Amino acid sequence: MSVLAIGSHPDDIELGCGGALLAHAAAGDRVTMLVLTGGENGPDGGRGHVRRVEQERAAALMGAELVWGGLQDCQVVPDSATVRVVEQTLQAVQADLVYVHAPDDSHQDHRAVASATLGAARRLPRVLHYQSPSTLSFNPTVFVDVTAHVGGKVAALACHASQVEMSAMVEPDAVVASARHWGAQARIGYAEAFQPTRMVLDLSPVRRTPAETPALADLPAAWALVPASLGAR
Amino acid sequence: MSVLAIGSHPDDIELGCGGALLAHAAAGDRVTMLVLTGGENGPDGGRGHVRRVEQERAAALMGAELVWGGLQDCQVVPDSATVRVVEQTLQAVQADLVYVHAPDDSHQDHRAVASATLGAARRLPRVLHYQSPSTLSFNPTVFVDVTAHVGGKVAALACHASQVEMSAMVEPDAVVASARHWGAQARIGYAEAFQPTRMVLDLSPVRRTPAETPALADLPAAWALVPASLGAR
Amino acid sequence: MSVLAIGSHPDDIELGCGGALLAHAAAGDRVTMLVLTGGENGPDGGRGHVRRVEQERAAALMGAELVWGGLQDCQVVPDSATVRVVEQTLQAVQADLVYVHAPDDSHQDHRAVASATLGAARRLPRVLHYQSPSTLSFNPTVFVDVTAHVGGKVAALACHASQVEMSAMVEPDAVVASARHWGAQARIGYAEAFQPTRMVLDLSPVRRTPAETPALADLPAAWALVPASLGAR
Amino acid sequence: MSVLAIGSHPDDIELGCGGALLAHAAAGDRVTMLVLTGGENGPDGGRGHVRRVEQERAAALMGAELVWGGLQDCQVVPDSATVRVVEQTLQAVQADLVYVHAPDDSHQDHRAVASATLGAARRLPRVLHYQSPSTLSFNPTVFVDVTAHVGGKVAALACHASQVEMSAMVEPDAVVASARHWGAQARIGYAEAFQPTRMVLDLSPVRRTPAETPALADLPAAWALVPASLGAR
Amino acid sequence: MSVLAIGSHPDDIELGCGGALLAHAAAGDRVTMLVLTGGENGPDGGRGHVRRVEQERAAALMGAELVWGGLQDCQVVPDSATVRVVEQTLQAVQADLVYVHAPDDSHQDHRAVASATLGAARRLPRVLHYQSPSTLSFNPTVFVDVTAHVGGKVAALACHASQVEMSAMVEPDAVVASARHWGAQARIGYAEAFQPTRMVLDLSPVRRTPAETPALADLPAAWALVPASLGAR
Amino acid sequence: MSVLAIGSHPDDIELGCGGALLAHAAAGDRVTMLVLTGGENGPDGGRGHVRRVEQERAAALMGAELVWGGLQDCQVVPDSATVRVVEQTLQAVQADLVYVHAPDDSHQDHRAVASATLGAARRLPRVLHYQSPSTLSFNPTVFVDVTAHVGGKVAALACHASQVEMSAMVEPDAVVASARHWGAQARIGYAEAFQPTRMVLDLSPVRRTPAETPALADLPAAWALVPASLGAR
């Protein structure tokens, strides 16, 4: 399986679904991170270079491939150009599952990235939204067990030292507490929580041959899909 | 994986998640159906015996084990006794995943079975709700691809001849149309749609040894979960 | 058109949809009121008889037929017996449209009557929910213009003197204020507001002969509803 | 009645409410279609001219007047200029009822057209939202019976050959399946489904003279809207 | 201010709003706890007596008055008798604010107590719902800062040793984690989270004399509340 | 307490929360109004100057400080520049509580101001949304008693003569009616209604010393937040 995680700025992905990505990597899935801006306007005083290096280190630690979107921090809009940037990566990695910001978020970049991703992934059967510190309404129903990966998630976040130490929005202990909170909601230990736009489950391991299932044509007329009353003459 | 599908009356389960159960069976999962009443008050004029035989035939066709709940049609209430009936089957089959009616339904038995199941499955990480013809609000976000199993689902439903031919609520062609409708929503062919109470994904095939992930103890103090300010002396 | 309004106690219907019923009567529709209990436990100190007489006077003033459900005040439960009471009146008047309490209400009788009505009206294409003073969440999207009927609504409510003068829940001026509030939401003068379970619109005055619309059979194969890929052999 | 249907691109309106428009036309209502862009960026490789001709043919087949909004495909934004375009048509046709995209949609043009229409129609008592293949959350409660018009809807859609044959988002059989799915939800045959922003019902055929209803001034003081306690001296 | 917290079983209140109650007590408010059942069916094997003693100790530790409802564990129903039990305590303590279970809960007692409380408190301007481990949907928007009271909350919970040690639903570390999680949502340290049915804010410290505000009677006619067009002759 | 009310145009704030601001002023709170545009495009035909003078008079009447945002009427967008305008006033007045438009509104400026305020106030524990005549979905749960301030609110609105007399969206009598409607919902007389993004309650009058609460360290190991199973070596 090919998994694509999309975030607006360096460290958004780690905060939102770092544990799930580690679980995917551990399960043998291909993991790609698309970071749309360099986070130049973050609390590091324009040290865009520093944040890029930090992001590269975190991706390496997580066993993920890193792709930069080349957009401008705090200036992302959900127009057709942004949609195209996401589409290109979706196609390049042949993504089966996308993780992205929840749509209702107080940061304009997060809203724009969520919207553009929903546009780009309009034909994809699996789109899950993660929570950011600035997310507003969030009603998760899908969870990933990250009990074995909380340490790894924290380590990946710790790569973003310039951000974590200076931003009032990232609170390290709250990251661990939320994982435990969602774990209790999911009836497991530690979890990351996701709000699905749509999630097609994969039940595939073994498969009977289709010939074993009865044929529609053998069934009573009542089951016909286009009854005469529709006027299909 | 052990899958338990729960319904109030004969044919409820087939209508709501028959295709998904066929997909589970095809994937090698153990499938159990718990039918809480015999449907004695259905449109067959009290032919409870007929409906039981029909249900047994349908379960056999789907490769599922059938369990009867022994409750009375149209008299199910979500009290501790009903919770216990569901709990016993949950434990007997060591269920990993439960399918049950959506909670907002105009039939009192459906509401009661959904409530009692949520009580019985309070510690289970995977509970999905299916749609019945009498379901009211329903916002599915989780889907199962049943393109290969629509024929089988219709065949299972056709076992319930006494009900299908006489009830104004079961419309055979609408069953197929809804599967196509949800399939379009899920960006696949034919689908069954589910509203999750909670759904922990299984990402497990391969697993790295936990030793590879960094230890929390090696991280900066900022990540400590119980800061001094909490007053933990 | 035959309209059936259903309420738990005397005066519930007038409060919730009295203006709409007057508008229906003015438009020539048949209007029936089903009052499920006699309101014996209301603030009139067991004067059940008084409340029944008041209800009969109000129904007469509104040009509506009155049916009593015969249930016990404060003891209504949404079981199959209550469903049957509502079903009988639905069938007797051949209702096209039902008005009933909103489902989320702090009074147990209101909740029970809403539930039982949804069960009884499970095959009816038009079910609208009105707001009571004890209604909790309420998100109306369908409105009826009652600008010409606010006076009539207030007059009908004034018939229920024993209740209005003694209950802390019925505030006469708030009734008029809410009609103006909902009128502003509906972009008209005064309105009653309804939350639809389902509302099929009637667009019928004139009708072309069906022969004028193209036949499905003349369309390209892509439009066929059951593609070969479904396995319908 | 004057009905205005608004869509972002050629074929959006037919997909979303083509059956309802045919029902309106059959009932003698005036029907206008406002298509805001020419769909130049669609899957026909810039054949904007082709799509315009197709749209004109479909409108003619549906007995509807066609108005072009003159905006640019994939570049629609919900600003005051777009609001003005919609306002002008609303006023020109003196619309009583508007059909438009649902607000939560993964296509930026669809979101923008829904937003701009809600702004332009801010004083209109009837605004209904239709579902597009790219619509995300959608909770319809208002329905139109299109059993007699499914053939006509499909014929109108078939006019858009360049789009239907080349776009992965338009699936012909899913159009018919969804009409049947919503029909089952509405307890009728085939239906189109709508999410109302607000819908004032028309109950008008016959009307009593207002003089027949009691006058507010004749009622007890308790019903006065501005009690002395408000401080209205 | 008089605060009433209502729970189904011993320890429900401490889990849901123990920190807020400690904050109320610290602020000088009167705090009462109404525990409706003795928790006889809990995991302590019928040691109802033990649970009662534990509850009394916890209430004492929190500076709260304790009232027992006398209902039967696992058998609570939201009927008029249960409503009356809650009404009596509401009146006895002249409650200004009520804390109670959230309505959507998988435990039948929790649902019943929430429903009965909403009925009993139908005229009360302040009703807040707390989260239990078995709560299902929960969308809190009102928070209380419990940073200074997490230690006290844990101490109160530790009084319920028989329950905490034996129930799989109460996970001590998750209690603290959730407080931190909700604190991050509330933009403070540690918080308890509440879903309001209604919450009238108290802005009262100082108050101007009403004579200082302009009189309605001095305003233009346009502001009159009952326009002539309403027919109030 | 410092209260900041934010609106897009002159009179938006008075309509949405004028009564609450008067209540805050009466309680001794500092009240500031930030009006982001001059309302140049309003129904007064470009008399921006007139509207500014009206707004100044209304602010004076309400005892509030007035700040102008300097943006262009009908052209507000929720970008980083608008966020900065709001941030500056938030910091200048050290706001404890913000009132702003509800996010779901048919006017593009209202949506933009709500979004930008949520961005600017991302670290603020108290953000309440008020209803405008153009607000769409609105589910208020927090209320302020304005029974003593309805006269003052109407007087403040009457300052905006150029707008009130010429705009079809502002209906004077509906303002009073809505206050009574929400008052009935809040179980008080007249109220303004608010939808909270988050609202931390203030319970502070008296406060025990933190030393009185038990220490976490004295509690059983089960309460430790980072169990060994997390792998914190």
Structure explained in plain terms:
Six copies of one chain form a homohexamer. In chain A, 36% of the residues lie in helices and 19% in strands. With 233 residues, chain A is of the alpha/beta class. Chain A has a single domain (2-204), classed as Rossmann fold (3-Layer(aba) Sandwich), CATH 3.40.50. Chain A has a seven-stranded mixed β-sheet, sandwiched between helices. In chain A, helix 4 (108-120) links the parallel strand 4 and strand 5. In chain A, helix 1 crosses helix 5. Chain A is globular. Chain A starts with a strand and ends in a 33-residue tail after the last strand. The model of chain A is unreliable at 206-219 and 224-233 (pLDDT under 50). Chains A and B meet through helix 1, strand 6, helix 5, helix 7 and strand 7 of A and helix 1, strand 6, helix 5, helix 7 and strand 7 of B. Chains A, B, C, D, E, F: One of its GO terms (biological process) is glycoside metabolic process. Chains A, B, C, D, E, F: This is PIG-L family deacetylase. Chains A, B, C, D, E, F: Keywords: Zinc. Chains A, B, C, D, E, F: Pfam families: PIG-L (PF02585).
